[in-house]
Amino acid sequence: MAFITSFVNILENRAVQGDKLIFQGANLVFAAFAEQWYRQHEIQYPKFHKMDSLCKLGFMGADILLNNRKIAEEYNPFQIGMILSNRNSSLDTDLKHQRQILSGPASPAVFVYSLPNIVIGEICIRHGIKGENTFFIEPEFDAGRQSEYISSLFQSKAIEACIGGWVEFLDEKYRLFLYLVEEKEAKGSQPFNAETLNKLYHLPE
């Protein structure tokens, strides 16, 4: 049996871990919201400023989710997985890259983020994660698919812990839901299944 030991939602200038409001901006565009969070929490990670919006969103979510845990020291890094999904892939950056092509030379710094799984890579680098990872493109958050897929990884002993969730950004509309699954039960943890995931995803709305 596996348990959800932490979860975070980010939407509408709010970051909520569990049922606790961690950070709130005031009618800010996402770039300003992310920068304010970065400075307020005294994050020291210069590469953050070069990331596209999707990666910044995922980076923020993972940092809040793990809450200063050094997860790659608690588990074998190759036994920590990450399964994410969204609706629009990296379309926000793809469109920016297309506009650059049409108006003149395109920036390699933009092109490098024109794949959705780059957000997984940025989170893995930040937290030392090296295990199984997959990024699904689907119309909406599919709790059933994620719970079945991640459960199969636990059952096959491919992972001992896993970050799952939804990371979506397009044209200033964004939504993040990340959760951490572990086999060991902790204080406040909840059973890992589709019903619980759906409840936690909709919690802040």
What features would you describe in this structure?
With 205 residues, the chain is α+β, with helices and mostly antiparallel strands. The protein has one domain: 3-Layer(aba) Sandwich (Peroxisomal Thiolase, Chain A, domain 1). It has eight helices and eight strands. The protein has helices spanning 30-40, 53-66, 71-74, 91-103, 108-111, 118-127, 143-155, 194-202; strands at 3-11, 14-17, 20-24, 80-86, 133-137, 161-170, 173-182, 190-191. Strands 1, 2, 3, 4, 5, 6, 7 and 8 form an eight-stranded mixed beta sheet that branches. Strand 6 and strand 7 (173-182) form a beta hairpin. Helix 2 (53-66) packs parallel to helix 6. The longest helix has 14 residues, at 53-66. The model has no long low-confidence stretch (mean pLDDT 92).
Question: How would you summarize what this structure contains?
Answer:
The chain is α+β, with helices and mostly antiparallel strands and 205 residues long. It has 8 helices and 8 strands, in the order βββαααβαααβαβββα.
